[in-house]
Design goal:
heterodimer, A: about 350 residues, alpha+beta, 3 domains, 7-stranded antiparallel beta sheet, 4-stranded antiparallel beta sheet, 8 helices, B: about 280 residues, mainly alpha, 2 domains, about 75% helix, about 0% strand
């Protein structure tokens, strides 16, 4: 009795009409988030997917048209696994941005715009690499080409190994994937000294993204116990908008223009200026690279699931189509005869 | 723009194939009211040969167009609408020509399929034949897989649409005679849905390959951008149509409308979304 009631429930949940209804609901949800996923509630997609997942599970359990056909069963199990993996992915993912200065080491303190799933458990603390120099190819009209960002990674034997990262060649460490972005630029290294020339602090000030904001390379810095110092950077990078060009921070030079209380001073690397409360020294010009960080432990599994799902679908269709003749054979035979000149045979069937 | 003469020649070959196929079917329609004559069947056979030859010539000329452009600008037809349309004209033409050659029953569908391709041809002629810049994220083998699977998907949809178009048209008075020599609608319907099954497999492959490419290119495999959402809705419509067709006794004419809807949606996704969204995928460049 209990078994038949359960079967009845499964049959209702597995209804093919419900499948169509939930598919329609999912289509509506996707349409609502069209081109505006950030502003649309995630539930317009999650609820229909959940309903479809229930429908799928019930169908897999109770529908012999599915669970007795290997290919179709694999396809439906695959669809279910994709939905589950997507859910696990959203629960455990992590995304963020990070800007790292050349010679600087990655630290999770540098991360910004972090988005993280509630069950994220990645070992970001174990991620370690040091940023090296980079080059970016530009075509005429400032069209950005490939980026080659050099990094050094501990080889766990006391040494370092080098790697080159790009927009489409991520650095993958502990499952975290770092991609270069258009966001990169220059950073003057500045020191703040007291009146006696004793070093108080040294810091890097990231200037706006270059060459995107070539025209406004300005920023400010407030040293410890000092006033805000406004400055801008005059760069010589060889940039020519009309011709192909390679951005290479090692070939660039920058003059720091310091503006305090209306007094303008130009500094080259190694030069200092006396300001109220201390001395500002422009050490050298460095570069910074902006990375996109992505973590999703389900990535490989998702690919595998998608592959198996499609293989199951293909196998099912192959078997089904091989087993069920189209009824076209006679027609085809006649048409082939017709193609060889026996037109009347074809007509006698069709007309 | 050394490739333009080849393009014009390729499109002319397709246009002649369309005209020849329409003339051939019109003759068959006229013949349907009179007893079959061996001389006329030979004419029809020659007509089909001519259509096949013209379509083959069109495909070859478009291959030359693409190769010439590729050599000139240094990359394949993956970026702007002008080159994407040429590429689609080539791939749709190639798949349809093979289908036309191997499956004789499909030959009459040329009167639906070739005019549809004519829409693309007119469109490409109306576009500025500008060069494009290859984005850094396009240096990826998965782009090839993604685009290649997508081409097969659209081509199988096109063949299905040709059959669906014939099913719908032959119900109308004027076209009844034209398509009388074809097999029953039940058979055309089965054949059309077989192409849609193939389309679903290749659509799924396209989405999967696209996800792998997107992960490498933009650091995420799926972000519900305009093109991704359109593609997903297209997959959903195709999947729901096949689900309905296999689960219920969908009337043949309704099935034909569903097939055409899938093709129209795919057409809008491929060629409409780039108008709606400036970049094919946001953040692409």
């Amino acid at each position: 009795m209990r078994k038949s009631a359960l079967t009845s429930v499964f049959r209702h949940l597995a209804s093919t009409k419900l499948t169509l209804l939930w598919m329609l609901l999912l289509a509506v949800g996707a349409a609502l988030s069209y081109d505006n996923p950030a502003e649309t509630s995630i539930w317009v997609l999650v609820i229909p997917m959940l309903l479809l997942a229930i429908n799928l599970i019930a169908a897999i359990i109770s529908n012999p048209r599915i669970n007795r056909r290997g290919g179709l069963l694999i396809f439906h199990l695959g669809l279910l696994s994709i939905v589950l993996l997507a859910a696990i992915g959203r629960l455990t993912y992590m995304e963020g941005q990070v800007e790292i200065i050349s010679g600087g080491e990655f630290s999770d303190d540098l991360l910004s715009e972090v988005r993280i799933g509630p069950l994220h458990n990645g070992a970001l603390d174990d991620v370690n690499f040091v940023q090296g120099p980079y080059t970016v190819e530009y075509r005429p009209q400032m069209m950005r080409g490939r980026t080659y960002s050099q990094v050094a990674i501990p080889d766990n034997q006391g040494g370092w190994r080098e790697a080159v990262v790009g927009d489409d060649r991520p650095l993958v460490l502990e499952g975290f994937r770092f991609y270069t972005t258009f966001n990169k630029g220059f950073a003057p290294i500045l020191s703040w000294l007291d009146e006696n020339g004793q070093l108080i602090e040294t810091g890097a000030v990231h200037m706006p993204s270059y060459p995107l904001f070539d025209f406004k390379q300005s920023n400010s810095w407030t040293p410890t116990d000092g006033d805000e110092i406004k400055f801008w950077l005059q760069l010589e990078t060889g940039l020519t908008a009309e011709e192909a060009w390679v951005l290479d921070g090692r070939r660039a030079t920058g003059t720091l223009v310091v503006n305090v209380a209306g007094n303008r001073t130009e500094l080259l690397p190694g030069q200092s200026v006396q300001l109220a409360g201390g001395i500002l020294r422009y050490e050298h010009l460095a570069t910074w690279m902006g990375y996109k960080l992505f973590y999703d432990p389900t990535l490989q599994w998702m690919f595998l699931a998608a592959f198996i799902t499609i293989a199951g679908l293909g196998a099912h269709f192959w078997r089904k189509l091989s087993a069920e003749p189209l009824g076209l054979d006679d027609e085809l035979r006649n048409e082939n005869k017709h193609a060889k000149g026996s037109m009347s045979a074809s007509r006698s069937v069709a007309v | 723009m050394t490739e333009l003469p080849w393009l014009y020649a390729g499109i002319t070959a397709y246009a002649l194939a369309a005209i020849t196929s329409i003339v051939g079917v019109a003759k068959l329609g006229a013949m349907a009211t009179t007893p079959a004559l061996p001389g006329i069947s030979e004419n029809q056979r020659n007509n089909e040969r001519l259509v096949l030859a013209l379509m083959t010539a069109g495909v070859v000329l478009l291959v030359i167009t693409l190769a010439d452009r590729w050599l000139r600008i240094g990359h394949g037809p993956f970026v702007n609408l002008f080159e994407l349309l040429i590429s689609q004209l080539f791939s749709l033409g190639l798949v349809y020509t093979i289908a036309y050659w191997r499956i004789p029953v499909l030959r009459t569908t040329a009167v639906v399929v070739l005019p549809l391709m004519g829409v693309l041809a007119v469109w490409v002629l109306a576009l500025e034949p500008s060069d494009s810049v290859f984005p850094p994220t396009y240096h990826n083998p998965w782009l090839w897989a993604h685009v290649g699977f997508g081409k097969f998907f659209l081509a199988f949809c096109l063949v299905g649409t040709g059959l669906a178009g014939v099913i719908l048209l032959r119900g109308r008075g004027f076209f009844k005679n034209l398509f009388r020599h074809l097999p029953d609608n039940v058979i055309l319907d089965k054949l059309a849905w077989r192409f849609m099954l193939l389309a679903l497999v290749f659509d799924s492959l396209m989405l999967t390959a696209g996800g792998v490419w997107a992960q490498d290119a933009w650091g995420r495999y799926w972000a519900w951008d305009a093109l991704e959402t359109s593609s997903f809705l297209n997959w959903l419509l195709l999947g729901a149509s096949i689900h309905a067709r296999t689960s219920y006794n969908v009337p043949i004419r309704l099935g034909a409308i569903l097939i055409i809807s899938v093709f129209v949606f795919a057409f809008i996704t491929y060629f409409g979304t780039p108008f709606y969204s400036e970049a094919a995928h946001k953040g692409v460049i």
